[in-house]
Amino acid sequence: MDGGVDGCGGRDERECREVDAGITRVFGLLGKRWTGPIVSVLMQRAVHFAELRRAVPGISERMLSDRLSELGAARLVVREVDEGPPLRVAYRLTEAGRALEPALKELGRWAEQYLPDAGSCPESFRG
Question: What is the pTM for the complete model shown?
Fold first, then answer.
């Protein structure tokens, strides 16, 4: 086989069956429960922790903190301390986090067309 017809681009057949490493990394981070809604809220503006928790119904403080830490470690979100008083912590997307917007909007359009509605989504999450 020359690789041109099978879509493998000349690579060995085993390589073509492996999942793309970039896609694996993306869904390893963004595919976790709650991450999508958190990023969706942050697409709109920087948000204080308590406001973010209210904007994502059902998430616990611990889970929100864990997801924000993961997004921070991936350099998609930054934590900013407002000295106050009172002392408050806000989160915002980095340039890399904001760069996700076109892809996430496209996924949202795809979901509207191809995934059955599994319940209502707050209007603020719709793009």
Answer: 0.74
